[in-house]
Amino acid sequence: MSLAPQQALASPVENTVVGPGDSVLVLPEAGQVRVGAGLHADGGHLRTTRPGILRRTKAGKLWVQGRQIRYIPAAGDAVVGTVVERHSDAYNVDLGGPFAAVLPALAFEGATRRNRPNLTPGDLVYARVTAASRDADPEITCTDASGKGAGFGPLQEGLVLTCSSALVRQLLASPPPPVVAALGAALAFELAVGQNGRVWVGNADSSTVVLVANALANSERLSPGQAHLMVKKLLASVQA
Amino acid sequence: MSCTELAGPGPGSGKELLRANGRSAHQLRSMQCERGPLQRADGSARWCQGGSVVLAAVHGPRGTASRKEDPERAVVEIVFRPRSGLAGPAERLAEATVRRTVEGVLIAALHPRTAVTVVLQVLSEDGGLLACALCAASAALVDAAVPLARTFVAATLAKTSEGVLLVDPDAAEEEAADAVATLAFAARGEAPGDVAPTLADGVLACRSAGPLSDGDFLAAVDLGRAAARCVAVFARASLEKSLSALV
């Protein structure tokens, strides 16, 4: 059976729960299967490595949507990191993964040898993962591919919330999730969502920041109606 | 053997010998699995097998001291804490068994230089403790989403002085038995769309104490495999329920 190169194979268990090691597809001899996170080829089968729901992106890529707390760096992710060490030409940044990432000191917009940001351990940065192989420490940068800032860089003041990958995926969905829409309608604040399970809330006074962080932390398993109700109650309790 | 056969004829039917709590010889105790009870661990699970309850927490893959790390694969560390008192040789033996079982299913090459730590805390003991700990460890590893080639389940068997094999003995039955064996089997869905997981050929782990003839031992392995199949079906149902919110 030969397939057109653009046609990706569908799995019979899409949108159902799969456990680790479960076969999702018998790999054919010819054809194209686009594989994403949580899947690997084993024998003649495409198998999962972690539990979750098997999903298919619009481009036809199969991946396992799960809920994970530990972050495993992948190239291209936008992350919120905490500086842990400072060296002469790079910083070590904790992303919540197995190893600290390396952030070159000049990897900021408009940075030169004489003019560069002065970060100390404990500072927060919003960065992009450029390299993440399993054998080396991950590398991050605070610029986009062309060297512009694009929203990356140090984050001043605010609060960092630790959350699971499932909540991060909800927060990064477009349109924005109901909890973010409800909070944004009532309050003014800034949000930086890191795919490493860290969400920074800032640029507002402390009671707003704490309220937003609590609302986001509670919102993971709520339905849209419940999320609206929760935000309304939190706002009422602060104004009282 | 199917699950309904293994569930036994039910109390009062007079078909087989009844154990102290009304179970038949091949009947498992009721099981409970709670996934993710601990907030700070990367994965956690509480497994109840009758009166035996074990809480497992998984941390990792995370960096570890350079003397412990392996440049090609993730290292597995197990800590087994008894309900009371300090850990002794029995706990070290349990740690070694659980470690080799986990190493048999973990895809360690995906995370070199890291460690995956499983902490097992016994909350209450009523027989079949090692099997309960193995099931808790498996559920916690699945909850942590570390890369696994298969999950695993375990069952305990006891051989009484009359030569009868009992499945899932409680503490009194274990004490009175001539021999006790704990067996672990790897499980995964073999074909796409399989409803129940299939147990892999062979035994993933086996820890036995007491005299068992060759025939008895092979009968125990067969019976253990049938019991483990029921445990695997339950574990899968529990996983589907915990993930139903994401669907």
List the helices and strands and how they pair.
The complex is a heterodimer of chains A (240) and B (247).
Chain A lengths: L16 E2 L4 E4 L7 E2 L3 E4 L2 E4 L3 E5 L4 E5 L12 E9 L3 E5 L6 E4 L19 E8 L7 E3 L11 E3 L3 E4 L2 H7 L6 H9 L3 E5 L3 E5 L3 H13 L5 H16 L1
Parallel strand pairs in A: 3-7
Antiparallel strand pairs in A: 1-6, 2-5, 4-5, 6-7, 8-9, 8-11, 9-10, 11-12, 11-13, 14-16, 15-16
Chain B lengths: L2 H4 L24 E5 L7 E7 L2 E12 L11 E7 L7 H15 L10 E11 L4 H16 L6 E9 L5 E3 L3 H6 L2 E10 L9 E2 L5 E5 L4 H30 L4
Parallel strand pairs in B: 4-5
Antiparallel strand pairs in B: 1-2, 2-3, 3-5, 6-7, 6-8, 8-9, 8-10
Helix pairs in contact in B: 2-3
What's this entry about, in short?
The complex is a heterodimer of chains A (240) and B (247). Chain A contains four helices and 16 strands.
Report on the structure:
Chain A: Residues 158-204 form the K Homology domain. Chain A: One of its GO terms (biological process) is CUT catabolic process. Chain A: Keywords: Exosome, RNA-binding, rRNA processing. The complex is a heterodimer of chains A (240) and B (247). Chain A has 3 domains: 2-65, RNA polymerase II/Efflux pump adaptor protein, barrel-sandwich hybrid domain (OB fold (Dihydrolipoamide Acetyltransferase, E2P), Beta Barrel), CATH 2.40.50.100; 78-155, OB fold (Dihydrolipoamide Acetyltransferase, E2P); 159-239, K Homology domain, type 1 (Ribosomal Protein S8, Chain: A, domain 1), CATH 3.30.1370. Chain A is 19% helix and 30% strand. Chain A has helices at 165-171, 178-186, 206-218, 224-239; strands spanning 17-18, 23-26, 34-35, 39-42, 45-48, 52-56, 61-65, 78-86, 90-94, 101-104, 124-131, 139-141, 153-155, 159-162, 190-194, 198-202. In chain A, strands 8, 9, 10, 11, 12 and 13 form a 6-stranded antiparallel β-sheet that branches. In chain A, strands 1-6-7-3 form a 4-stranded mixed β-sheet, with no helix packed on it. In chain A, strands 2-5-4 form a 3-stranded antiparallel β-sheet, with no helix packed on it. Chain A starts with 16 loop residues before the first strand and ends with a helix. The longest helix of chain B is centred in the C-terminal third of the chain and has 30 residues, at 214-243. In chain B, the strands form 2 sheets. A 5-stranded mixed β-sheet of chain B has the order 1-2-3-5-4. In chain B, strands 6, 7, 8, 9 and 10 form a 5-stranded antiparallel β-sheet that branches. By secondary structure, chain B is α+β, with helices and mostly antiparallel strands. Helices cover 29% and strands 29% of the residues of chain B. Classes of the chains: A alpha+beta (240), B alpha+beta (247). At the A-B interface, strand 1 and strand 2 of A face strand 3 and helix 5 of B.
